[in-house]
Design brief:
The chain is mostly helical and 372 residues long. It contains 14 helices and two strands.
Length: 372
């Protein structure tokens, strides 16, 4: 029955994607007004499935961010939306760093107390030589790629700190805010040296890719530890997966360009992460608004309110956020039945909707590319 649900949801999502993107029988977005208030919905099974998977409360925060952005546009403050949204996201990143250091200090104190009381304390082995070789190789590659030695050194130091935090946060929350760490390290590097726009994007990409790989790998190791999986076998699999990602990711990027002709919000492919990084490369906008939003984002995160999700909602806009919110409402209704079987079925259907649109969109892009 589970396989049947997965296949049906995959097929429905794939067919809907073809109807929307190939035949054009369904619009990407439907816009209207209720009185003077604009209403928009993005026609995407993937977006609804995303809302279902993340749950009702996160989707509410996401929708709240979209409403905040909409109100700012209606008030004529559209120019500061990006600055405020990125400030909230970076503030969440700062909150993550504060929480990381506080947790690390508490753990260190706990280990010292255990040592004083004579209890056995597990020791973590660090292979410093391998780390040194990896950092040296990365330094050489970045210098060859065009970064100055001082910028490269600062970037490497930033990558080490960011990947450590990313690994912990991904394991604790299941969320890997890699682009936020990229922005934080980029801003930190710019405090010491001036870098061009091209090199700024390069630094942010270095940090984001490293955090993405490290965070997901450590989360996989956490799962493997729970399931008693051989960590050496996992390491080989992670290494192969990372290399495969390099070989697949770049062609996929050009497939998207071949399908849509360009990149950016105008193509109907909004990416909050890309917008936030681009905004920081170009400058932080109004410093007062940015730092006020940063402080607010930090406080909200420390109060257990996901300011990063609110910022993403502000950037992505009302259409996609509405679809995600609908998915969250469906998740709330399903959870009210308190049935484990229904929860499992819902997750399977959501996974099918995600996979169906994602796979079909990729196939459409490949066909479009070869058609020229």
């Amino acid at each position: 029955f589970k396989a049947f649900l997965l296949v049906i949801s995959l097929a429905f999502s794939a067919l809907f994607t073809v109807v929307r993107d190939v035949w054009g029988w369904v619009q990407n977005t439907y816009d209207s007004y209720v009185s003077f208030f604009p209403v928009s919905i993005y026609m995407s099974p993937l977006a609804i499935a995303t809302g279902y998977i993340i749950g009702f409360t996160p989707s509410c925060y996401w929708f709240t961010g979209a409403l905040a952005g909409l109100i700012m546009r209606q008030a004529g403050a559209e120019d500061v939306i990006m600055t405020a949204a990125v400030g909230l996201m970076v503030g969440a990143g700062v909150g993550i760093m504060i929480n990381f250091f506080m947790t690390s200090l508490a753990e260190s104190k706990k280990r010292r107390n255990a040592k004083k009381s004579g209890k056995a304390v597990s020791r973590k082995e660090h292979n410093g030589l391998l780390l040194l070789i990896a950092v040296a190789a990365a330094f050489v590659i970045t210098v060859i790629a065009g970064l100055s030695p001082i910028v490269s050194i600062l970037a490497m130091i930033g990558v080490i700190f960011a990947t450590a935090m990313s690994s912990v946060i991904t394991g604790q929350t299941g969320i890997n805010p890699m682009e936020v760490f990229g922005i934080i390290i980029l801003l930190a590097v710019r405090l010491f040296v001036s870098v061009s726009h091209e090199h700024a994007i390069y630094i942010a990409c270095l940090v984001a890719v490293a955090c993405g790989y490290a965070g997901d790998a450590m989360n996989d190791y956490k799962t493997g530890h729970i399931l008693n999986t051989n960590p050496k076998s996992q390491f080989v699999a992670e290494l192969i997966g990372g290399l495969s990602g390099v070989l697949v990711g770049v062609p996929a990027f050009f497939l998207i360009i071949a399908q849509y002709g360009s990149i950016g919000a105008a193509t109907g492919l909004p990416a909050a992460q890309a917008h936030s990084v681009a905004a920081m490369v170009s400058g932080i906008g109004d410093p007062l608004i940015f730092f006020a939003a940063l402080f607010a984002g930090m406080i909200l995160y420390l109060l257990k309110i996901p300011s990063m999700i609110i910022g993403i909602g502000m950037i992505l806009g009302l259409g996609m956020s509405t679809s995600i919110f609908i998915g969250g409402i469906i998740a709330l209704i399903m959870s009210s039945f308190k049935s484990k079987k229904l929860d499992t079925s819902g997750n399977i259907i959501a996974a099918g909707l995600l996979g169906g649109e994602g796979i079909t969109s990729t196939i459409i892009a490949i066909v479009t590319m070869f058609k020229g």
